[in-house]
Design a protein that fits this description.
CATH architecture of the largest domain: 2-Layer Sandwich
Structural class: alpha+beta
Bound molecules: adenosine-5'-diphosphate
Number of strands: 12
Strand content: 15-25%
CATH superfamily of the largest domain: PAS domain
Helix content: 40-55%
Shape: rod-shaped
Largest sheet: 5 strands, antiparallel
Order of helices and strands: HHEEHEEEHHHEHEEHEEHHEE
Number of domains: 3
């Protein structure tokens, strides 16, 4: 799925980068232009004031009287003042002018005149000869606090205007040029940033349910993208293992269901071909019914496990007496053990009764499974013990047998679905390898746990721990995934 250029991260990155830079550049150009222009104008004003001051003090030393225009020229030469200067007498008429002032006069408007009369100076920018701009200062000449004349000093602003014009030109020419190169730089830089994303996207597109073993290539950096790739690969690990479990589960389930179906079909075919008497047909139907029962059990167990995995196994939690339940199970165990002459005993390691919160029916199913297994995997004449104990806030039930035991290497898997230590033999016993995973799912749904200790040839102990107060979150029992 191609992304249009305008929507690409690369374009957006470059666009915002260029826009930000353009705004910053324009703002700094404007600021520097105005700052430069203002400083230069202030400098000119200060120069003009300085010249006017010097002329003022020279006149004061003259001690009044008419202006000495020659002396003014001498001052101008000595001070090397690059300015137009005009002196006005107390009647405000022009009396002396510097040589460079060809017109022999400078503008002296009513505002300037008013200011000077008030003994203060006045700055203005005036135009002469059409397009030439002058900065003009009109300052009073004072004697004993009285106005005795006016000194006007002006300087040509042409140079300043020319410099500012050149500055503007530089900004206008260099700005777009610099911006172009910055955009190009940004575009190439964003390419470097986005390239791994494109690579990772292309690799991710290749991954589907069929090739979940593939992983995204590492970017080689421990940055955000590196973290994203690691997280994505971890997610693929989990997905892959979940898919593997689902495949294994459906494979095992169909295998388990196919066996009774094959038996059903085989027996039916044989009977239809060879059987003659109603008894023979009845035997076949009887055997078929057993296989149907077996399939029904497997399907029920699978449904129960599926529910508990999706967290839908609803428990009917209420308070009941665990001691009573264990007592009843003990009696049931004794009956079950009779056929194999297995002696079943009960050990109660608590002083009083033990009320507990839980689903009594499910817990009965749990313990019956363990007792039935204990009897199933214990040779004739063996022993089975039920023990009820307390461990802090947990109730503990041990089911110990003196049976064949479980090999060490098989112990971690006995709670897995469809796991059987001796595959051929157990099937004959009617076991499908789902009993212990159901036991575990019921224990976990109660917020409890189950473990096994077994010595091959000597026997096994299954230990169930259940919280006396019931599951931590009764409305939402924990889902188990084995
Ligand atoms: P099954 O229906 O085959 O008994 P379970 O899930 O109940 O399946 O048990 C899984 C496997 O664990 C059994 O096939 C058996 O090999 C082993 N097992 C369970 N309980 C015992 C026990 N008390 N003694 C020895 N082996 C046991």
């Amino acid at each position: 799925m191609a992304i249009s250029l305008l929507r690409s991260i690369r374009f957006r990155l470059t666009f915002w980068y260029a826009l930000t830079l353009a705004v910053i550049m324009a703002a700094s150009a404007l600021f520097s232009y105005h700052y430069f222009s203002k400083t230069m104008r202030q400098q000119i004003d200060e120069d003009l004031l300085n010249i006017a001051d010097q002329i003022g003090s020279a006149y004061t030393r003259q001690n009044g009287g008419p202006f000495d225009c020659d002396q003014l020229q001498t001052h101008i030469h000595q001070g090397n003042w690059d300015a137009y200067i005009l002196l006005r007498g107390n009647n405000l008429r022009a009396e002396c002018a510097s040589d460079n002032l060809l017109a022999g006069d400078l503008e002296f408007g009513p505002v300037a005149m008013q200011q000077v009369r008030w003994l203060s100076h006045h700055f203005e920018t005036v135009e002469i000869d059409g397009d030439m701009q002058l900065r003009l200062l009109s300052a009073p000449l004072k004697q004993h606090g009285n106005l005795v004349g006016v000194v006007q000093v002006a300087r040509n602003l042409g140079l300043l205007q020319q410099t500012l014009g050149e500055l503007r030109l530089i900004y206008l020419l260099i700005g777009p040029f610099a911006l172009f190169w910055l955009c190009l730089g940004g575009w190439l830089l964003s390419d470097q940033l986005v390239a791994p994303v494109i690579e990772v996207t292309a690799a991710a597109r290749e991954i589907n349910a069929e090739n979940l073993l593939r992983r995204l290539p590492s970017t080689g950096h421990h940055d955000e993208l590196g973290q994203m790739v690691t997280t994505f690969n971890q997610m693929l690990d989990r997905l892959e293992s979940a898919f593997r479990r689902v495949r294994q589960f459906s494979g095992d389930a169909s295998h388990e269901l196919r066996t009774p179906l094959t038996i059903l079909r085989g027996e039916t075919e044989v009977t239809m071909r060879w059987a003659k008497t109603p008894e023979e047909f009845r035997d076949m139907l009887h055997s078929n019914l057993e296989e149907i029962d077996r399939m029904e059990r497997i399907i029920e167990n699978l449904l129960l496990l599926a529910k508990s995995e999706s967290g839908e196994l609803t428990l009917e939690i209420r308070e009941f007496n665990l001691s009573d339940l264990v007592q009843a199970l003990y009696l049931q165990g004794r009956t079950l053990g009779e056929a194999k002459r297995i002696s079943v005993s009960l050990r109660v390691g608590i002083e009083e009764e033990m009320p507990i919160r839980g689903d009594e029916l499910r817990l009965r199913q749990l313990f019956l499974n363990l007792i039935a297994n204990g009897i199933k995997y214990t040779p004739e004449g063996g022993k089975l013990e039920l023990a009820l104990l307390r461990e802090g806030a947990m109730a503990r039930v041990d089911v110990t047998d003196t049976g064949i035991g479980i090999p060490i290497e098989a112990q971690p898997y006995v709670f897995d679905r469809f796991y059987r230590v001796d595959k051929a033999r157990n099937r004959m016993d009617g076991g499908s390898g789902l009993g212990l995973s159901i036991v575990k799912s019921i224990a976990v749904a109660h917020g409890g746990q189950i473990s096994v200790h077994s010595t091959p040839g000597r026997g096994s102990t299954f230990t169930v721990l259940l919280p006396i107060g019931g599951p931590p979150d009764e409305s939402n029992p924990p889902a188990i995934i084995s």
